[in-house]
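Minutes, project check-in
Item: structure for the 593-residue chain
Input as provided by the requester:
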Amino acid sequence: MPDTVDTLKLKQRLLHEQVSILLRHLPGMAVGTVLLASGAAWLLILRHQPSDLVLGWWAGMALYSALRLVLYLGRQRYPVTDANARRWALVLIATSGGAGLMWGSITLLFFTPDDLYTQAIIAIVLCGILSSATQSIGSYWPAHLAFAIPCSLPFSIHCLIAGGSALTILGLLSLLFLVFTASFARSIPLSLRQSIQLRMENEALVESLTRAKEHAEASERRKTRFLAAASHDLRQPIHAMGLFVPALQRLVRHARPSPQALADIADRMHSVLESMGQLLQVLMEISRLDSGAVMVRRAPCAINPVLLQVGEVLRDQAKAKGLRLRLMDTPLWVQADPAVLHTVLLNLVANAVRYSERGGVLVGARRRGDEVEIQVWDTGIGIPESDMPRVFDEFYQASNARRASAQSRGFGLGLSIVHRSAELLDARLNVRSRVGRGSVFSVFLPRCDPVIEAPAPTRTSAPAAPTQVVLVLDNDEQVVRALTHLLSGLGHRVLGAQTMRGALVLAWNNSASISLIVVDYHLSETFDGLQAISRLRGILEREVPALVITGDASVQLTDEDLRQDITLLNKPVDPRALQRWMAEAAPSAAAIV
């Protein structure tokens, strides 16, 4: 049976339907019983059967039919439900058995072995009522048997006992007819069961499609709100850049710009670009989570190293705001993906630092039975109770978030990333908060035993990158020029190309000097950066370290790519990240963006 239909539910639905069918047929059976009994009584009187006995039998049949009509009317007061269908079924089995006994009594009262005409009347009447009952109560086999056996079996037995070839044949035929009708009635519930099962599967399918449609519509509405909010937050820095650039152009063309004025505008433009880059970064993270591009590899994970990484990223930011960031050492391990756990904790701590103006942020872990609770405490502005249900929604900020400084207010995406990342880890989240006092965010993960690992070799910090010859391949001229200016300003020689053919020519003419390769991932519809790296390395005849730059959140490098010294950076690329990569790649002389 398909998994879409529960067996118990199907049985309940089938019984409900069978009982309902029997009740619907009660009026027709009652009327048909009275009419057939009337015809049989008239024929028996014509065969000189005792009139008072015949009329008494007919009156009993009529009275019993009336009682079955009363039972039919009772269903309006006690309608059939899944809960009472079994009781109704027992009542209908009993009443069907009673009707069978009433019809079977015609054999006991009027069977005359020497009167074949009377036996023919009885046989025809019983066969007729049995055929009719097969259609009317055959949907519920126990009720059919309760009627058919007492109705027909006495006649078969009397014929066989009476003897004689005619009665023996008649008895065998009536017995065969009883078996035939019972077999036919047995197939009716099976067909009914299949019909109900198909109906239930269709209902389940319709319900599933309805839920999917509602989910898709809700997702579309969320996406529309998401894009509207994202476009608003992107419009602000773009608007600021649109004012700074003409101001800078005017300053250069019509006046002698002072170094102080140029530095001020450059610093402000850098701040705007940094804000835009941060927004694009979190938007890319949301996109990666929605597209399923984040591959989760759960394994025993020590919490302490993850906390240290978070501290390295956010300690300066907390210090700049006069906050104390405390990360408590813990020996606990959890079953999780370290990268995803880092994303969860980084966003939680960043959110705590962002909305705290005094005091500090405390991060620690404690054992909770078979789980570990990682807590992030802050002394920030807190979250009103009314905002709690929506605190993990995209672009949603608590109603009191305006109390935070304009520089520290975020985009309302950090906690959404936390929620989605926690779902990937099957981690539970909990929030407690008091307005004006601060908040506590908790992450619950399965606890596991520590894994003893061999000590990692000590790695000295990478020296500053020496002058490199960098081959840059990007189909966007502005990107090639920007990278050329940036890398040339850092003292490197840049060979820029916008086509694969041009890059191959440069590689051929400068094969001995090229030490780094920088390529865009999406070069054309049929050719990507990884393929470009392979062809360029073939020309250079060595495994030049490579860096791939992409704006596609779904792009991920394989283990084989990593072994081949290929690195991935997402747009917009932070120049400091590019410099760090070049410093690390310089000893092996290669890079790709």
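Outcome recorded: Residues 373 and 444 are 5 Å apart (CA to CA).
No further action items on this chain.
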